[in-house]
Amino acid sequence: MHYPIGLLFDLLASSSALPWNITVHFKSFPEKDLLHCPSKDAIEAHFMSCIKEADALKHKSQVINEMQKKDHKQLWMGLQNDRFDQFWAINRKLMEYPAEENGFRYIPFRIYQTTTERPFIQKLFRPVAAEGQLHTLGDLLKEVCPSAIAPEDGEKKNQVMIHGIEPMLETPLQWLSEHLSYPDNFLHISIIPQPTD
């Protein structure tokens, strides 16, 4: 429950055919692998916690703190009931930034790899360099996860996936965050071994 379904697909089944067949087990819950979901309220609390964390990175929590409780509820209910307009009316505010700032304060991202024991990598990373140029996905990976990028003269060993697509490494990180973030406002990036077929 704590990983978005699209992220799970990217990590575990992106090379398989669609539709993705999922087997649900009702016994022997894998406590070591998944958070147990005690109630619907726990899911809402986890979601809102992620939203608040993302806003702290993007706007120093200013946007979420200016919202009223009814706005938080509308955000959750829009997501829960699959009502994009209801969700986006509030989430849009979390995706805005002043024009003079050229982007968010930091990009809320998590990098997941199937080849490590570490659940994910998360660090502070600005979307704009000190010199003013936009950082790209490649810049992020070079700094945070250099093993994900093939050397210029080497063979590509990994795929970088977001929402089932492999974005170009030259894509500005700010654009990715605005357009490919999950509903929790995080950019969930999967690093998976390059398919051999």
Automatic annotation (TrEMBL):
Residues 41-96 form the Autophagy protein ATG5 alpha-helical bundle region domain. Residues 1-17 form the signal peptide. Residues 1-26 form the Autophagy protein ATG5 UblA domain. It is found in: Preautophagosomal structure membrane. InterPro entries: Atg5, ATG5_HBR, Atg5_HR, ATG5_UblA, Atg5_UblA_dom_sf, ATG5_UblB. The keyword Membrane applies. This is Autophagy protein 5. It comes from Galeopterus variegatus.
